[in-house]
Amino acid sequence: MTSQPALVKLKGPILDPGLCRCCRSIKKCRFLTSEYEWTGRKEIYSDMFMDCFGLLLSHLDGDSKECCICATCVSRLRDACAFRQQVLACEDVFLRSKLDIKDADLDADLEVDRKLEVKVKAEPCDPSDTPGDYTADHDSDNKPESDVPEVKVKKMPVKKELLTKMKKLRQKLDHRLDNQALKTIKKEKSLSKQRPNNNDRMIYSNTVTIVKNSYVCPFLNRISNYYCFYCKDQFTNPTELRDHTISHNPKDTFESSMENKKIPKIDITRIDCRLCEIKIDDLTTLKTHLADVHGKIIYPIENEFLKFKLTLNNLCCTECGSVFPYFDSLKKHMIDHFGTFVCDMCGACFLEATSLRTHIKSHNKVEASFPCEVCGKNLKSKYSRYLHIATIHEKKPTVNCYKCEASFLSHALRNKHLIEVHGDNRTFPCKLCDKVYNRRKTLMEHNRRNHLKVFKHQCDLCDQKFYLPSRLKEHMATHTGERNFRCEYCEKTYPRLQSLQEHIRSHGDRKYKCDFCNSAFTQNGSLKNHMKSHQQGYDLETSFS
Questions:
Q1: How far apart are CA 387 and CA 406, in angstroms?
Q2: Average pLDDT value over all residues in the chain
């Protein structure tokens, strides 16, 4: 597991709610001037602002609600400080390489001067070549040797060819040293990417040790379905998932099944030791037991993975005790505790780097359409177009059963097969009304539409909101007067699809019949309106009689 965020619980005061001085959001915050411990290091956020940006924040006296910073901004501040340290380290390597170049140039110049001086001393001096600042006596031969004046020899001028050669040699040396410095910087960067830091190695080691030597249950998920970490079997009941996972031996398969750059999700409902029969209920107690009793290496860190206690209903957060009806909403809530990857464009926070990269692509997404060659319908992707053609036009079964080799045209048919053939209990009742569904996703949509009132699509011309964009499109026809839904039997047009569907029923069975005349209707409401006409006629007759 590499490049994984360090999930270490901060030791320091927490204010809930507080006003973040960096993004002005009101949520759980920390104090700017208090001291916190993170991955074994002490940090004071106001000092980090001063060291990194030279920014002195004002009015930080006392622990008030206006002297706070949220977890998202703390993560960005740490990244900025780390980037500053990286730049300083690279600058240090650059300056040291330049100093080495200057020292090499100086040594080369001194060596050239020394060779030239030795060459001049070795050659005899010709009077015609001597400079004009001294003259020799003509009768010097008659004087004793001691009376002959000492001749001072100046450094000979360097030839032009030699200067050119030295210049080229120096340029080669500069280029070679610059390349060497760049290679050193690139090598350091590549090693830092490929090799996890000490904290990541400790997180990985603790996770492997805990899973291999206890009955904790690692798992995968998609939406609100659970999958076996080892064989990818699907489960909706957490008890069945835990019982199935015990059949796998984590010592043989856990490390090979680890997904790179993803934080493992582990159910800690049962934390008993695999090496002995002792019963353990707390993860910290398990670590101490494995280290003291069985001699396992456990590093002094916390939150190596995302911890869950899976139940059929009312999932609780292991960090703060908040209750959620679905696992998907609980997983999103965990971002508040451990989200360290922040989008610079919109401030969205994520648990994993891969999720952040996928989100960033959505900012630069270009709207593309993939029309169906049969009916012309525009689909969002090639895969969506393939599913559309296979299921709608070619009637190919594309939904596979994960317990046998059967395939079906829809998820509803597969669910029916799971109930009738495999005996699965796939009923999901709504807690707020008497509706019961055979798919958890359908139940979620029911809650969002009918109970939570999640209407994201609002009309620009009035205050009405809708759950689906198609309903908004139908509603807009009431403003524009368009009647795009035409009956294939009588050519009548309607502004809404629902109105057309109600009209089409009038061409079918008319089971609501009037007791006074031969009129028949497809809807009970239409019959009641018709009965009013008979009532009005009866009132008129009684008034004249």
A1: 17
A2: 75
